[in-house]
Amino acid sequence: MQFPQGKPPVGIIFDSAMGSRIDDVLAMALMYGLDGKNEARVVSVSSSRSNVSSAAMCEAIGRFYAGAASGDFGFVGRLLPVGLAADGRIGDETPLVTVPLAKKTEDGKPVYNHGIHSLMDTADTPALLRNAFTSQYDQNCIVVLAGPATNLVRMLGLPDAKDWITRKVRMLVVVAGDFAGGPAEFNVKADIASMQKLFAEWPTQIVVAGAELGAWLKYPASSIETDFAYAKDHPVVDAYRAFRAMPYDAAAPGVAAVLAAIRPKENYFKMSPSGVVKVLADGRTEFAPSATGKHQYLVTDPEQKEKVLKVMVELVSAKPVPKAPRFRRPVDKKAVDPAKAVVPDTAPKP
Amino acid sequence: MITPKALPRRTFLRGLGAAIALPVLDAMAPAFASQLPGKAPVRMGFVYVPNGMDIRNWTLDYEGKLQGLSRIMAPLEPFKEDMIVFGNLTHNNGRALLDGAGDHGRCCGSYLTGVQPKKTAVDIHCGISCDQIVANQIGNQTRFPSLELGMEDGRQAGDCDSGYSCAYTNNLAWRSETQALPPILDPRALFERLFGVDAGLTPEQKSRRNKFRRSILDFVTDDTKKLEGNLGPTDKRKLDEYLSSIREIERQLERAEKDNAQIDPHMAKPYGIPADFAEHFKLMTDMLTVAMQADLSRVFTFLVTREGTSRSYRELGIPDGHHPLTHHRNEPALMEKVSQINTYHVKQFAGWVEKLKSIKEGNSSLLDNSMIVYGAGLTDGNRHNHEDLPTVMVGKGGNYFKTGRRVVVRRETPMSNLFLSMMDRMGVHAEHFGDSTGPVNGLNLG
User: Fold this and answer.
1) Tens-digit pLDDT profile for residues B173-226
2) Domain ranges, ordered by start, for chain B
3) A92: distance to nearest CA of chain B, Å?
4) ipTM attached to this prediction
5) Residue A296 in contact with residue A174, Cβ under 8 Å?
6) Is the pLDDT of residue B244 over 90?
7) Does A337 contact B333 at a Cβ distance shorter than 8 Å?
8) With contact defined as beta carbons under 8 Å apart, do B44 and B425 qualify?
9) Between A149 and which of A195, A346, B144, B243 could a Cys-Cys bridge form, CB atoms 3.0 to 4.6 Å apart?
10) B297: nearest Cα among B144, B133, B175
């Protein structure tokens, strides 16, 4: 895609363990909402939850937002492949993905389209992530890790990965850990070794959204009941209802992370001083301030809570905006087929 | 027959300015060794066709054991058990990656190198191609480290696609990051390179030879007779077939040269290039076969026509240029023509595969002991995409690859991974190549 006037909006590379937490679905909805407003571009989506349904759900959500709110697939452009860890640490299917994917129309067709039916329909994640970097402008890419670090660490193992990351990535935002002294957080506990390696070796700035943020920022069930009425069927609503018995407000640290990453100037959150995050052997996280450290974590700001909540709901529940097709010159059919081409008679008349 | 001393593998039939290497003969192996599998060398080759495919008529919709082939692949039907059809292999470095237009330049430049060529028409910069990495390592075991063949004259300088040098569209093999290896297009030039007819001859000798142009076989008659006296009946037959094939190549060359002289003395093509596409293809692959048979080289590339070519195919009743046709914008009549061209290419390739399969090497065939990738650097010439590239590999690579199936790898898997696996089979154990993420698993029989 060509952007004649400077850099395009920042590219978002999103890796989660789709199926584990409803927060991942909400974060994707937020990303696509910002994509629709041209504040960001979703350039890669992957999952470290090793079942095909997890990837299929990612694709179904992507197609929903790329197409029309009705669910009819009116996608224009290249469909992003979805990466999947073939042998990640967690793998079972959950209702969060199986229920929406099993939902059928009156004539028995899936309500949410996707093209992922086997592992071969998904992308090899290290290659997918590296390839996504290669097509971004320098320092115009943000990586959002909302799941275990399995996929990112595998990509780090590619020989040229760190060079690409250093060149292309502005920051990594990680939804993991707990900086209020809590127990081992889910994304860390699922693959402790990978999270340790990630914090030790990732070459750019890392901003962390800890579990305490999720306790502070919750997505309201009332929004699910009312704000998505523009679509008869909506994957966010169906996933939300399938995840837990309604009504409940869902912890949304992933949404907070995406918001902070894409709209840093809004100061929705405060930032900790610079330092180093250390992942302990039991999965708990510690933070040691250091002037040379590249890590920070998001800190809640009570004065901003209402504003953050309002913005979150607005963006997550925003009606999808189908992207306009790229301009193409009208086809001159005669000119396309040389056999049918009419050679203009330019010879001088007698 | 038990021979106390084996005939050296590097035996040549020599004569005035000629040196004909021999195919693998039983007499070259120690007693009973010809019964052992995997004796013959493994050959690696790449046959590249331009402008992608009419992908609707290429892609198979299943994995595993090969059943019915698609329309374009249909000529390969008799060789289903000898090939692997790949799905999902991707060349990310053929994509724009912020460099804008120029997919034809990028896809050919990146095809065997696995890197993105620098967008320039002047200071070209690409990568060392996998064939040359192998040639550098094992090329000293054969007379030619590698052979580069082509069929369409192409410039080596200037802008051939949106700012990409013609060096990218008109070459497959890259010796270094800045030096491409232009393919030999003229069958006579290839013949003389392979058999060294002119090598070492004085101008007087060349003049004398041209005046009384005779078969190269005439110059090596004495050596041939001497050798035949030491061969068993099987080897004698094999040698006879081999020398006959060389004679047939000579006849084809002479015929082409005679025809060209009659058709148009001012034609731009070199003197020995047949006007007919199929005849040219056959002549080039016949010589390649001899080169493989005689172990003159184990590594080759064949750029059937240059990437982005606008060659027409009047022999198929298609006067349109190939490249403009591929931008068919889903017009059925134009897509049909693209399919016909794609199938025509595969048909020529299948004819060669048949020949390779017919040549016995011990208990296997020349095809069995080869691994030849046939494919394109663009998937769909209309869309200019670079994922799920049309790719077939024929041959078992020396009883190594499990053929007869369609192997679908995961999306975004680099094409470089397949080349890494092939390099490994050739004895070059690189950890990485191009943008590889690892070898393609599960290809071998083990």
Assistant:
1) 999 999 999 999 999 889 888 886 565 566 666 666 665 566 778 878 888 888
2) 1-31+190-272, 37-185+298-446
3) 21
4) 0.88
5) no
6) no
7) yes
8) yes
9) A195
10) B144
Q: Which domain holds residue A164?
A: 10-340
Instruction: Please report whether residue A249 resides in a domain.
Output: yes
A134 touches chain B (CB under 8 A): yes
Model pLDDT, residue A324: 57
Instruction: Output the pTM of the full model.
Output: 0.89
Whether residue A347 lies inside any domain: the answer is no
What is the distance between the terminal CA atoms of chain A, rounded to a whole angstrom? 50
B87:A336 CB<8 A = no
B12 three-class SS = strand
Domains in chain A, number: 1
Whether B319 contacts chain A with CB within 8 A: yes
**Does residue A4 sit within a domain?**
no
Closest CA to B129 of B380, B304, B299: B299
Contact B79, B87 (CB under 8 A): no
Shortest distance, CA B96 to any CA of chain A (angstroms): 8
Q: Is some CB atom of chain A closer than 8 A to the CB atom of B336? A: no
CATH number of the domain that residue A248 is part of: 3.90.245.10
DSSP-assigned states of every residue in A262-316: H-GGG--SEEPPSEEEEE-TTS-EEEEE-TT--EEEEE--GGGHHHHHHHHHHHH
Coil, helix or strand for A135?
coil
Q: Shortest CB distance from B98 goes to which of A81, A119, A135?
A: A135
Q: Using alpha carbons, list the distances in angstroms from residue B321 to B205, B302, B314, B325, B433.
A: 44, 21, 10, 6, 35
Task: Give tens-digit pLDDT for A23-37.
Answer: 999 999 999 999 988
Structure-token pair, residue A336: 């396309």
Q: Which one of B100, B328, B410 has the shortest CB-CB distance to A120? A: B410
Q: How far is CA B298 from CA B141, B260, B401, in A?
A: 9, 32, 17
The answer to whether residue A24 is domain-embedded is: yes
* C-beta atoms surrounding B235 within 10 Å: 21
Q: Is the dihedral of CA B250, B255, B258, B259 positive or negative?
A: negative
Q: Are A177 and A204 in contact (CB under 8 A)?
A: no
Q: ω before A247 within 30° of 0 (cis)?
A: yes
- Look at residue B233 and give its three-state secondary structure: helix
On chain B, the residues whose CB falls within 8 A of the CB of A138 are none
When CB atoms are compared, the residue of A2, A159, A339 closest to B432 is A159
What is the dotted CATH code of the domain comprising B37-185+298-446? 3.40.720
The interface residues of chain B toward chain A in range 80-119, judged by CB-CB distance below 8 A, are 87-88, 90, 92-93, 95-98, 100
